[in-house]
Design a protein that fits this description.
Layout (H helix, E strand, L loop, with lengths): L4 H7 L3 E5 L5 H18 L2 E6 L4 H8 L6 H6 L5 H20 L1 H8 L26 E6 L22 H15 L2 E5 L3 E5 L9 H11 L2 H4 L7 H8 L4 E5 L2
Helix pairs in contact: 5-6, 5-7, 5-8, 8-10
Amino acid sequence: MERSTKQIAESFQCKYTIFERGSLPEAVEDAYKAALKAGPDGGFYPAILLLDEYVEEWLSEIMKDDYDRDAVISGCGNDGKAMLEERFGGYMEDFLEDFGEEEIQAFIGEETEGDELHHFISYRSFSDGTLEADVLLLELPVKNPWEVIGYLPMGGWNECPAPEEMIAICKYWYEKYKAIPAAFTHDVMEFYAPLGLNGAEPLEAAKEQYAFCTDRVEQGTRTYKISELAAGLAGSTVWYFWWD
């Protein structure tokens, strides 16, 4: 265990479990799902945090003395859907201007195959599949799952939505899909969506996810088409986002 791991864990002022680097990731996922079941009665929602080499800088930079967690949480609006529609519309306007209408349709595509995700991957080492670094399972004292963003306020750089936008989007996605923000690194966020798309159209969901994170399509698919993401989402219970 890294020397700073316990210090970071205690800074959240909540119950936590430490999983050490090199251990099996299945234990983290099993513990997360057990905590998720216990959370509503226990007054918390769980979140997984990878303590990679950038996490201290991320947390210290965002959560400065003037950071008001309560204000971020209480200020959550009901405009997550509108935010995504505006972001998607803006991206398509730029695409139209640069490439034309036909290229927009080609970018959306007609793919019928895509990768399904059923396990968190953000904390797994690419070399041997074990934990890349120490991992925390935090029991954050929030009433609603989208409020974990108040404790892990990533975003606000490059194309990543600001924390205030992200929390509204997470609320919208929970209400629509029952998807829960679950696993975090400094530049990755994964949702647990046990009901999948909860009856929504895959292409509609894929457009929302592209609006949330363009890299999910532009760097996370083989064909670079929204329809490939949609095909994979149709059977997925984990949603993965990475901002370059």
